[in-house]
Amino acid sequence: MTIFDAIGIAGTGVTTNRKWMDAISDNMANLNTAVSTGSDAFQARYVIAKEAGDGKGVQVGGIALGSAEGRMVYEPDHPLADEAGYVKYPDIDMGTQMTSLLMAQRAYQANLAVVDRAKEAYQAALQLGKG
Predict the structure, then answer these.
(1) pLDDT averaged over the chain?
(2) CA-CA distance, 18 to 12, in Å (whole number)?
(3) Which of 12, 21, 47, 91 is the most exposed place for a label (fewest CB within 10 A)?
(4) Close Cβ partners of 13 (under 8 Å, ≥ 6 residues apart)
(5) d(Cα 88, Cα 30) in Å, to the nearest integer?
(6) Measured between alpha carbons, how far is 41 from 72 in angstroms, rounded to an integer?
(7) How many beta carbons lie within 10 A of that of residue 50, not counting itself?
(8) Separation between Cα atoms, residue 56 and residue 16, nearest integer Å
(9) What pLDDT, in 10s, does the model give residues 103-130?
(10) pLDDT given for residue 98 in this prediction
(11) In a 10 Å sphere around its CB, with 0-12 CB exposed, 13-18 middle and 19+ buried, how is residue 54 labelled?
(12) Alpha carbon distance 77, 75 (integer Å)
């Protein structure tokens, strides 16, 4: 593996983790999105990672959607409440999303660190060549 391979592989990790953080951001932004009980609740987004086509790195293989059933909450004063006083919210747990966000952020940072180290190694090799 060359330094350029390392940079390319780490770059695929950066891209995949960015998409993972985007999905988590969508989930957290819609955590309190209420709908009427007859509608589908916001469906959480989950990034599916897979090996890159060339075998060097990772890529997003797709986005899986969570349940549209949601959770029923009794809020009789809500404008979307049904005749029994219920509205539907997404079935998304903030704690789980925060944990996933921390994991995605750490993985993103780790991949950026690999890019930085590979760049430093390449620059050091160039300096040796000038010697």
Answers:
(1) 93
(2) 10
(3) 91
(4) 57, 58, 107, 108, 110, 111, 114
(5) 12
(6) 10
(7) 11
(8) 13
(9) 999 999 999 999 899 888 888 888 886 7
(10) 97
(11) exposed
(12) 6
Separation between Cα atoms, residue 86 and residue 50, nearest integer Å: 40
**Type of residue at 91:** D
Q: State both tokens at 64.
A: 């899986």
Q: Which two tokens stand for residue 102?
A: 């921390």
Band (46; pLDDT cuts 50, 70, 90): very high
Token look-up 């219920």 returns 86
For residue 131, the model assigns a pLDDT of: 60
Residue 96, pLDDT > 70, answer: yes
